[in-house]
Design brief:
Layout (H helix, E strand, L loop, with lengths): L2 E2 L37 E2 L6 E5 L13 E5 L5 H9 L8 E5 L10 H18 L4 E5 L8 H22 L2 E3 L27 H16 L4
Parallel strand pairs: 3-4, 3-5, 5-6, 6-7
Antiparallel strand pairs: 1-7, 2-4
């Protein structure tokens, strides 16, 4: 299904793969965070049902997901996403898919990422406690895959930990962008910049969202 359901047992405070001694140290990366662009919204379907909220990777995937609003905020990091959510009427949605954290990879710090991701989900839950919240993995970045993939894996472990603690669902989006066995990235799904998705990549992302939403209440 590509969805990990939350477990009954609460996970420890420090997620798997994080060394307590390195929690506050920066992980170097050569990626530069893209500047925050003008916020855009692409709505499809009826409001009051389902929503996908994410960064620029979610732009242009509206359609083929019935009764779903797709809202893309290019350049937004976790802290910015919380401010964006404040201005959205999230109380009207019963299922919410989040694809966030991609723009935090360039300055990744595990302690800060954990804190800001957990704060974002708690804030969203406070605004809509009845919604099913589904948190997506961060997908690979092929432009400098060799230097950033370990950071992306680390971030995804944190996202899964937050899902367990706060009883959300985790969507294993990244699986669609990696080859089974080798774990290498599927280059044919990306644009020439090595960061954004082409039409084939957007189709895979859309399929992942649609599948998650179809099983949201199971």
């Amino acid at each position: 299904m590509g969805i990990c359901r939350p477990q009954d047992k609460i996970a420890p405070t420090v997620p798997p793969g994080i060394d307590r001694g390195t929690m506050c140290h920066e992980v170097p990366s050569q990626i530069q965070t893209p500047p925050l662009q003008e916020e855009r919204s692409d709505d499809n379907g009826k409001k009051g049902q389902r929503m996908v909220l994410g960064e620029s990777l979610c732009r242009g995937i509206a359609g083929d997901i019935p009764n779903c609003s797709v809202i893309s905020k290019p350049g937004a990091n976790l802290k910015r996403m919380q401010k964006i959510i404040t201005n959205l009427n999230v109380k009207t949605y019963h299922s919410i898919v989040l694809h966030v954290g991609t723009n935090d990879i360039s300055s990744f710090n595990p302690h800060r990422f954990l804190s800001e991701y957990m704060t974002l989900i708690k804030y969203l839950k406070s605004m809509n406690p009845d919604a099913v919240i589904m948190c997506c993995d961060i997908i690979p970045r092929i432009r400098d895959f060799s230097t950033t993939q370990r950071v992306v894996i680390h971030a995804n472990n944190i996202i899964r930990h937050v899902c367990t603690v706060l009883r959300c669902k985790n969507v294993r989006t990244s699986k669609r962008f990696l080859y089974l066995g080798t774990g290498g990235p599927r280059h044919y799904l990306y644009c020439s910049d090595g960061l954004h998705l082409n039409d084939k990549g957007k189709y895979q992302l859309k399929r992942s969202f649609a599948q998650a939403l179809s099983h949201a209440h199971q």
